[in-house]
Design brief:
Rossmann fold, Lambda_DNA-bd_dom_sf (chains A, B), 3 domains, DNA-binding transcription factor activity (chains A, B), homodimer, DNA-binding LacI/PurR family transcriptional regulator (chains A, B), DNA-binding (chains A, B), four-stranded parallel β-sheet, alpha/beta, six-stranded parallel β-sheet, DNA-binding, 434 Repressor (Amino-terminal Domain), transcription (chains A, B)
DNA sequence: CTGAAAGCGCTTACAG
DNA sequence: CTGAAAGCGCTTACAG
């Protein structure tokens, strides 16, 4: 391994001066700098990340804490991870994966090791015990999602208000007046307080009121089978509904396939609009789905950027709320003539 | 931060002795040990991972190098990551994400930082330039996948031979005699040499020969749309085929939906068997798909275990080839009477 | 603009 | 069984 000592010797300077040019920490005379840079190139020097971390008290490592397999994160999560890791790399950082459960003790242990400068907290609950652990440890963190009152914390999240507004506007423009929002099943203990459901439902109530519509809300599990079951409930309990906004992407596949199987035309008889969908979803269904696409990559990037800003001790970065964007395909159209 | 110095002072010993009990490195008298453990508990000591790493020359950090979004890794990849990270944690390690391209220079830079003890290389090509980089840097690594001749390297991979054998056996037992294997499109430059395709095709040739069947091989892109297009080719060019084994899971969804749209009953007229599928796939389709399920979690675990063994300098862990397992649902059945 | 030196918090021969 | 001390490869006041 080539160390600063080696570089310093070859350039005829002290290791402090080498450090100054490597980090740009202090001005160095042009010719000295040139000699050092030459020596580094000759020897193939790379600054050791561990020694740097110990001396500077900054590891430049960030942790991504996510509850392993608690829900179907799958494809959005991978987009998110990749974007976050790439952003971290661009800003001279690394990203470690902490697939910790929502219980706080495990997180506390990991923090104690002193390996990371900050934590990105995914799948935040409205009342999240992990936040207290992070605060007590004075560990910088950013929320991906929001607690009930996220004001005191650095956070980035989907803008559910704007997402619902755009979705409703799209359907309303097409002529739909009987819309339903399918939110997630909250019977699961961990899900009672799940922010995306709570906020979307509230946003739908408000938006529907603004349009003078009745805000019908249904719940569904996450699987395609749950989506199929939903199709039955819809036909039986809400036969007049002409458009469905649905938050679970796998369930939307089951919903569409069961609706078609039972003779409903999509989008002729009923429009289907998945709300927080990943890139792959549209093409997985027939007809291709119009979606509100999840801003996974943007959230990953912004989460890391915000966290690094916070760690650097600059100003506290403002919250970032990013709406899903409408991507039109073939599952929404004007309602049938009535 | 509580350091070993603090613990040593409170227990009335030297920091060396504290280190011995923390790591179990050397025998320590029972009462001394008790005093130290009490002091650690009182102070809430946690050994600093960075200092440990610098002194011991082992960071206990592993890197997961994967080409970001080169293909559709999505859901299997997340299972893999999570399993790998959890295994790492269980063995006192961390996992960092390196979404590096397949080009070797970037990997070399990262290795140079000295942050990681070893690298897990995903999406290995038959002739992979990254392997040379790793070898030159004397960086321990394990392949997830295989180079053309993986013998010299620690590797874990899907056992394509056994997977194809079980898939063919399943279909043959049902009575199918006209099978087709749908492999991936290799027109993409990076894909010409893609191991999973190459090995599956070879395995199918061999297995078909053993059964006295004609080994028809088609290629398809990864998307659902590509799967739909495939349905047309199948009907037109291979009308007598009664069973399709297919390697791309999204394409299998398009294939099934297009077959049904054009009036083919599944599994009545034709059986469909996705070969390296993730857990979610079966329920995403109607009928639910019988699959050969990808051993993502097992590969993640074995990859990390093998790599840690290698890093620890023990014996070189043997290759691990894990077959996909047959999970029967509703897309395979006896062929129609002819 | 540059250097000598302390120090980050551990591990690990070495000595006793 | 335990301790004193060197050392891992950097950063960072401090002095000049």
């Amino acid at each position: 391994m080539v160390t600063m000592r080696d570089v310093a010797d070859r350039a005829g300077v002290s290791i402090a001066t080498v450090s100054f040019v490597v980090n740009g920490t202090k001005p160095v005379a042009a010719d000295t700098r040139t000699r050092i840079e030459q020596a580094m190139a000759d020897l193939g020097f790379r600054r050791n990340a561990v020694a740097r971390a110990l001396a500077s008290r900054r590891t430049h490592i960030l942790a991504m804490a996510y509850p392993a397999l608690d829900h179907d994160l799958s494809s959005s999560a991978l987009e998110f991870f990749t974007s976050a890791a790439a952003t971290a790399a661009r800003l001279d950082h690394h990203l470690v994966l902490w697939p910790v459960s929502n219980d706080a003790a495990e997180l506390k242990e990991l923090i104690g090791e002193g390996l990371v400068d900050g934590v990105l907290l995914m799948e935040v609950q409205l009342d999240d015990p992990r936040v207290a652990v992070l605060e007590a440890a004075r560990m910088p963190f950013a929320l991906i999602g929001r607690t009930a009152d996220p004001t005191p914390y650095v956070h980035v999240d989907i803008d559910f208000d704007a997402t619902i507004r755009e979705a409703v506007a799209h359907l309303h423009e097409l002529g739909h007046r009987r819309l339903v929002l399918v939110s997630g099943d909250r019977s699961d203990p961990g899900m009672i307080d799940y922010g995306p459901y709570v906020r979307s439902e509230a946003a739908f109530q408000a938006t529907a009121e603004a349009y003078g519509l009745e805000p019908t809300i249904l719940r569904s599990g996450t699987t395609a089978a749950a989506g199929r079951e939903l199709a039955g409930r819809l036909a039986h309990d809400h036969p007049d509904v002409t458009a469905v906004m649905i938050m679970r992407e796998y369930a939307s596949l089951g919903l569409v396939s069961e609706l078609r199987r039972t003779g409903r035309d999509i989008p002729g008889d009923i429009s289907v609009l998945p709300l927080v969908a990943s890139r792959e979803l549209p093409s997985l269904s027939d007809p291709a789905l119009t979606i509100m696409r999840s801003p996974g990559p943007e959230l990953g990037r912004l989460g890391v950027e915000s966290l690094i800003t916070l760690v650097a001790g600059g100003s506290v970065p403002p919250p970032q709320l990013i709406p899903c964007r409408l991507e039109i395909a073939s599952s929404t159209a004007p309602p049938p003539e009535s």
